[in-house]
Amino acid sequence: DTGVSQDPRHKITKRGQNVTFRCDPISEHNRLYWYRQTLGQGPEFLTYFQNEAQLEKSRLLSDRFSAERPKGSFSTLEIQRTEQGDSAMYLCASSLFREEAFFGQGTRLTVV
Amino acid sequence: AQTVTQSQPEMSVQEAETVTLSCTYDTSESDYYLFWYKQPPSRQMILVIRQEAYKQQNATENRFSVNFQKAAKSFSLKISDSQLGDAAMYFCAPGLMNAGGTSYGKLTFGQGTILTVHP
């Protein structure tokens, strides 16, 4: 296993379009997290899954955002009707119980 | 809610010297973890060191050590014998444990400190 992988690495989209990002966690990790990071800032928590259950969503996650982890393995984050303010790095991380989170390399979204 | 303050936006150090990065936080939780993560330019976030809040002994990991002052809610990172590869953005991040003692890794990150290492 090579760690947490995210796809795509970069995405440029026009305002108003929908985008979907994928995260494949480390295989034995049952916890998966999404964060958003803007340039020069620390990541901000968006949402968390334990297996397939989405246990918490941040207020940052507006109605245009939805995340799924259908079989408790990979996860997708969809943004509908993208806005320029959605431009950021979207980070995925995974962990085991009582263990530190391992991060992927992120998906950089640019909304033009 | 947790807040994290890293008061040093940028720090620099000479190769082989020692540097300390500061972090203060505020939390109403009694049990939690604290992490320092490193993010090199255009590279992924990597764990540097972890401290359990219930442990009084400061964590060490090779050249990296922390000074954890629970009462003061302070968690600084000391890097000894700095190397060029240590250059990165460093983030302090408390992680919650809920009432059931289950850490679910929701991290609150500080604003980060950019560390430059001069040869």
**Helix proportion of chain A:** under 10%
Largest sheet of chain A: 7 strands, mixed
Task: Report low-confidence residues of chain B grouped into runs of 5 or more.
Answer: none
Tell me, rounded to a whole number, the average pLDDT of chain B.
89
Report the mean per-residue pLDDT of chain A as an integer.
93
H/E element sequence of chain A: EEEEEEEEEEE
Could you explain the architecture of this structure?
By secondary structure, chain A is mainly β. Chain A has strands at residues 5-7, 10-13, 19-24, 31-37, 44-50, 53-57, 65-68, 75-79, 88-95, 102-103, 107-111. Helix content of chain A is 0%, strand content 50%. In chain A, the strands form 2 sheets. In chain A, strands 2, 4, 5, 6, 9, 10 and 11 form a 7-stranded mixed sheet that branches. The model of chain A has no long low-confidence stretch (mean pLDDT 93). Chain B is mainly beta. In chain B, strands 2, 5, 6, 10, 11 and 12 form a 6-stranded mixed sheet that branches. A 4-stranded antiparallel sheet of chain B has the order 3-9-8-7, with no helix packed on it. A two-stranded antiparallel ribbon of chain B has the order 1-4. The mean pLDDT of chain B is 89. The radius of gyration of chain B is 14 Å and the shape is globular. The termini of chain B are far apart. The interface between A and B is medium-sized, with 26 and 24 residues.
Concise synopsis of the structure shown:
The complex is a heterodimer of chains A (112) and B (119). Chain A has 112 residues and is an all-beta fold.
